């Protein structure tokens, strides 16, 4: 508070009284952040994730067929406490050999949606379902971040047009 009074005296001496009032008001004018959620269907109608196959089917049915073999993309499924799908969030689109999976963007979406857990997915346009070392490292990093936030990462799927790889099924989560 002392700083504000000193700052106000300096501004008052160097600027007119009206400008001083405007600068003081600007110190207390901030933007409001509002989060809202408008579901398109009832909670009882949400798809249930019971295994990696059901997860793959949901991702595959929502993936843009034109992009699946064209460029790498990263998405997350947002799940309720009963493993019902709240929604899907597209995190990024990249090029032939990679895309950005920013942890801040991933967990921001999950927290805003009030998700209880998430499932990660990205495609390999090459058709190779085997994870790269970067895929494995990123999965570990996001699992650790999820543990810290009490927002579990249940799986990370690598998707192609006809097959998938599940980190959880292979014991990598």
Q: Would you identify the CATH H-level superfamily of the largest domain?
A: Cytidine Deaminase, domain 2
Q: What oligomeric assembly is this protein in?
A: single chain
Average predicted confidence as pLDDT: 86
% residues in beta strands: 15-25%
- What is the H/E order? HHHHEEHEHEE
State the major sheet: 5 strands, mixed
Shape: elongated
Low-confidence stretches: none
Beginning-to-end CA distance, first to last residue: 50 Å
Rg (CA only)? 23 Å
What strand order characterises the main sheet? 2-1-3-4-5
Domain module count: 2
**Which structural class do you get from the secondary structure elements?**
alpha+beta
With helices defined by DSSP (H or I, 4 residues minimum), what is the helix count?
Answer: 6
Defining traits:
38% helix; elongated; Cytidine Deaminase, domain 2; 2 domains; 5 strands; 19% strand; alpha+beta; 173 residues; five-stranded mixed beta sheet
What does this structure look like?
The chain has 173 residues and is an alpha+beta fold. It folds into 2 domains: 1-30, no CATH class; 43-166, Cytidine Deaminase, domain 2. Helices cover 38% and strands 19% of the residues. The protein contains 6 helices and 5 strands; from the N terminus they run ααααββαβαββ. A 5-stranded mixed sheet has the order 2-1-3-4-5, sandwiched between helices. The radius of gyration is 23 Å and the shape is elongated. 23% of the residues are buried.
Give a short summary of the structure.
The chain is of the alpha+beta class and 173 residues long. Helices cover 38% and strands 19% of the residues.
């Amino acid at each position: 508070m002392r700083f504000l009074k000193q700052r106000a005296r300096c501004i008052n001496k160097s600027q007119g009284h009206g400008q001083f009032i405007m600068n003081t008001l600007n110190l207390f004018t901030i933007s409001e952040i509002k989060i809202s959620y408008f579901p398109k269907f009832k909670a009882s109608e949400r798809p249930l994730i019971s295994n990696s196959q059901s997860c793959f089917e949901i991702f595959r049915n929502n993936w843009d067929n034109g992009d699946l073999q064209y460029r790498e993309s990263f998405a997350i499924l947002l799940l309720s406490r009963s493993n019902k799908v709240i929604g899907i969030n597209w995190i990024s689109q990249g090029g032939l050999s990679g895309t950005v999976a920013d942890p801040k963007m991933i967990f921001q979406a999950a927290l805003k949606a009030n998700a209880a857990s998430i499932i990660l997915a990205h495609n390999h346009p090459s058709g190779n379902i085997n994870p790269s070392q970067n895929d494995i490292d990123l999965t570990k990093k996001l699992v650790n971040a999820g543990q810290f936030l009490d927002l579990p990462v249940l799986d990370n799927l690598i998707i192609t047009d006809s097959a998938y790889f599940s980190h959880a099924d292979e014991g990598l989560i």
